[in-house]
Amino acid sequence: MAGMSVKGDIRAEDLCFQAQQAAEKSLKALLSASGRSIPRTHDLVALLRDAARYYAIPEPVKDVVELNDYAVQTRYPGDYTPVTASEHADAVAEHVPIKQYR
Prior knowledge:
mainly alpha, elongated, disordered C terminus
């Protein structure tokens, strides 16, 4: 879903939120697989730091922290600058597909 095109009623901030959620859930899955407790946070920096205690995290994967801005602020309508289609493309395209690391 995060990689969909921005068109019609699809908002870039919603797609960026989905990209952040995919990264968050993936890091939480790693922690769960290691038998560790899963912190109640949306902070990708904290989750990545915790996962790095148990796994060797490839450098390109560490770039997911750039998605932190989309965790909460764009989830609900409010006082934020709308995400542009270009920002969405950067947020999704810059991250290496996880299948490379299986």
